[in-house]
Write a structure and sequence with these properties.
The complex is a heterodimer of chains A (about 180) and B (about 170). Chain A has one domain: Arp2/3 complex 21 kDa subunit ARPC3 (Orthogonal Bundle). Chain A has about 180 residues and is mainly alpha-helical. With about 170 residues, chain B is an alpha+beta fold. Chain B folds into two domains: about 30 residues; about 120 residues, Alpha-Beta Complex (Sulfite Oxidase, Chain A, domain 2). The longest helix of chain B is centred in the first third of the chain and has 29 residues. The mean pLDDT of chain B is about 80. Classes of the chains: A mainly alpha (about 180), B alpha+beta (about 170). Chains A and B meet through helix 4, helix 5 and helix 6 of A and helix 1 and helix 2 of B.
Chain lengths: ~180, ~170
């Protein structure tokens, strides 16, 4: 019988992390008036997903799943398509970055993958604004400042994810996962 | 390829991506045709100000930098709301004596489909604290101490248009 790309256990793990992204987006709010600050939470989770299921496509699955959950919950202020695309692209962007950079447990790699993932979300919003005239331009702080926010918080989130992976490895979680696989 | 080389390639790609976005945006600003009303030019990111349906000005992030910030604690959740008085924003682009107390000021959000209608007298009264503040996403929202706007569902989140109507 042909082996499936993701095991059921891995898919459940990815789905849980996708749900965690949506919960983090709803429940964890930082009193920062800086665009992109929520990237600290969800890029951390994305990088953890990449470490726990080290296969290309894992973070895309998390992005797509969290995007579907968020779209069904009516999250985001620019419509369901925007929400679905931007959440999905967070995962796809991180996936593409990790195809090049590989090991998400390396903190520099984790920060860069987080930055790419978060930048992908920004690019979706910006591209939709340019192509469809969606009001991305209402970002009051200006595009460059918004970009900087996305990069910094994406990198911080990635770093947080890398540190979490290191902590999980020290705690023996990867040995536990190896048994489950 | 070594890990260091891969990281360098990723950084170069990131910088190229940044350059592409900022370059395209700069190009958009250059190519953006002037608005049809007189010499008013709206750049991407600017919010238009209309006077009796004629575009008279647009304000953007640079305008907000020129203004003093004010603040109040909202009654609903006791949170500090800090921003710029709508009065100051409007006076950046028009003379105070042009506007009469009974004129309507409508601030609206095209994404949320919400709006608030106030009079110039209400906007002008500093005690009402009719102001634009930043949302967590960095967009603008209209808040006030006025009774008609003292709860969150009455605020105009993602405000992106200001209209002034004479009677």
């Amino acid at each position: 019988m042909k082996e499936r790309y993701f095991s059921t256990f891995q898919l459940i793990l990815l789905a849980l992390l996708a749900a965690l992204i949506v919960v983090a987006k709803i429940a964890l709010r930082l009193p920062l008036r800086i665009p992109g600050h929520s990237g600290v939470f969800w890029m951390g989770i994305i990088i953890v997903a990449a470490g726990l299921v080290p296969k290309p496509g894992a973070t895309s699955v998390v992005g797509l799943t969290s995007g579907m959950i968020a779209a069904f919950l009516g999250m985001g202020n620019l419509g369901a398509i925007n929400t679905l695309l931007s959440y999905t692209m967070v995962g796809v962007g991180a996936d593409l970055a990790l195809l090049l950079l590989r090991n998400p447990e390396n903190l520099v790699v984790a920060a860069l993958a987080g930055t790419f993932g978060h930048m992908s979300k920004f690019l979706v919003k910006w591209a939709l604004g340019v192509l469809l005239g969606a009001p991305v331009g209402l970002v009051a702080l200006g595009l460059a400042w918004t970009l900087v926010g996305y990069i910094i918080f994406g990198a911080l989130g990635g770093l947080l994810g890398g540190l979490t992976l290191a902590a999980l490895r020290r705690a023996g979680f990867f040995a536990y996962l190896a048994e489950k696989r | 390829m070594s890990q260091r080389a891969r990281i360098l390639v990723a950084i170069v790609m990131l910088v190229a991506l940044l350059g592409a976005v900022l370059g395209i945006e700069a190009l958009r600003r250059l190519m953006n045709p002037a608005s049809p009303s007189g010499d008013v030019t709206l750049s991407p990111g600017d919010s238009p100000i209309y006077l009796d349906e004629q575009l008279v000005a647009g304000f953007g992030p640079a305008d907000l930098d020129q203004l003093e910030t004010v603040s109040f604690v909202d009654a609903e959740k006791g949170k500090l709301q800090q921003g710029w008085l709508l009065y100051d924003v409007l006076l950046l682009h028009m003379e105070a004596d042009v506007l009469m107390p009974e004129w309507s000021i409508v601030v609206s959000s095209s994404t949320e489909g919400t709006s608030a209608q106030l009079t110039w007298a209400e906007v002008k009264n500093e005690a009402n604290m009719v102001m634009l503040t930043l949302t967590n996403r960095g967009t603008l929202k209209l808040v006030s101490l006025l009774e008609v706007m003292d709860t969150r569902d009455e605020w105009v989140v993602d405000a992106d248009k200001i209209e002034i109507f004479s009677p």
